[in-house]
């Protein structure tokens, strides 16, 4: 997204009285105020390690039921090291990745360029691989990656039974299972299991602190003590051993305290919002119903017209619908992602239908 569009979106959202998709952007002053609300601010900060960073690692390990967790400044770094660990332990540089996975679309193939690994594709279908597809891989792999949910397929999740079968299939071919759990927080309601039960299927799990939880940055890689020791060495080698990271750790802890308990409510309400949006003329939502609090929406208009209408609605009527519209392979049809967070809980199905109709009116009249 161009920088000027991002700034315009942030300003428009902050000026709105009602927000359907997303959360109101926070100012730096507001973020500092959130950090000041943390407990024990008189404690010393981390110095390369320790302090609130260690406390956060211990809390994540407890949530996920793992022996240890290691804080990382970015998820891209954490995921690279998870895959490198598997390759080093097995001597096999080949990993099973989905072509729509985060490593392929959003990490600039770091696993290949930085670590010298190569990928095979268990499937190209817009979903995570099945147990049968893992078992049918034509060559050995050191790690199988499952993204929960698979964001670029529409935030889709496997069922619990499918996920347990994939874990068993990975073990059956002698591979580790790594969960890209950046959005594991909102995956648990659909899977019907605790975070510990989900992570318990895997050899390593990555989680994000700014996606969903609202932290300023940061991630964690969770697994065995052996993985954690390895991760700390390679975190340093990748330049991730920062002198102080307490601001990110404090906002992550705040997100675990305040935002995480509300996530199941967001997921439930996303179904109400999606059902109302699906009733708009020419609209389509996917998945239907949503698996998490995020889903895709298509409308039969060009992306530019929808984007202009969304900003006009925000700037003139102080109501934020959604932005980030992009044209699809179907001419005249655009798609965006909807995220139901705290502000969206205030919207009834009737509210969604009424504002959606106003957006369409503005778009059609442009």
TrEMBL record:
Its cofactor is pyridoxal 5'-phosphate. One of its GO terms (molecular function) is lyase activity. The keyword Lyase applies. The keyword Cytoplasm does not apply. Keywords: Lyase, Pyridoxal phosphate. Residues 30-288 form the Aromatic amino acid beta-eliminating lyase/threonine aldolase domain. Belongs to the threonine aldolase family. This is Beta-eliminating lyase-related protein. It comes from Actinoallomurus liliacearum. The lineage of its organism: Bacteria, Bacillati, Actinomycetota, Actinomycetes, Streptosporangiales.
């Amino acid at each position: 997204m161009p920088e000027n569009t991002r700034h315009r979106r942030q300003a428009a959202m902050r000026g709105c009285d009602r927000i359907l998709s997303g959360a109101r952007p926070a100012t730096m002053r507001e973020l500092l105020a959130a950090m000041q609300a943390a407990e024990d601010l008189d404690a010393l900060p981390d110095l390369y390690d320790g302090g609130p960073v260690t406390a956060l690692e211990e809390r994540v390990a407890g949530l996920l039921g793992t022996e240890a967790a290691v804080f990382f400044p970015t998820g891209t770094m954490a995921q690279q090291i998870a895959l490198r660990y598997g390759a080093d332990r097995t001597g096999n540089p080949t990993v099973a990745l989905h072509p729509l996975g985060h490593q392929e679309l959003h990490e600039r193939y770091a696993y290949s360029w930085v670590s010298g690994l190569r990928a095979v594709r268990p499937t190209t279908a817009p979903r995570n691989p099945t147990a049968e597809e893992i078992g049918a891989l034509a060559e050995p792999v050191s790690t199988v990656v499952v993204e929960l949910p698979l964001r670029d397929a529409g935030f889709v999740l496997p069922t619990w039974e499918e996920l347990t079968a994939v874990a068993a299939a990975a073990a059956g071919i002698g591979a580790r299972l790594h969960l890209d759990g950046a959005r594991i927080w909102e995956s648990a309601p659909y899977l019907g299991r605790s975070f510990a039960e989900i992570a318990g299927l895997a050899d390593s799990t990555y989680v994000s602190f700014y996606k969903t939880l609202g932290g300023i940055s940061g991630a964690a890689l969770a697994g065995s003590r052996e993985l954690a020791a390895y991760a700390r060495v390679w975190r340093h080698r990748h330049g991730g051993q920062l002198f102080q990271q307490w601001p990110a750790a404090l906002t992550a802890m705040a997100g675990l305290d305040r935002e995480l308990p509300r996530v199941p409510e967001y997921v439930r309400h996303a179904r109400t919002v999606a059902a109302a949006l699906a009733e708009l003329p020419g609209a389509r939502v996917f998945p239907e119903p949503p698996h998490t609090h995020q889903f895709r929406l298509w409308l039969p208009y060009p992306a530019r017209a929808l984007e202009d209408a969304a900003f006009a609605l925000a700037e003139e009527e102080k109501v934020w619908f959604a932005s980030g519209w992009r044209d699809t392979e179907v001419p005249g049809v655009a798609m965006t992602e909807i995220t139901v967070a705290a502000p969206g809980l205030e919207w009834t199905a009737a509210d969604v239908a009424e504002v959606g109709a106003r957006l369409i009116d503005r778009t059609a009249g442009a």
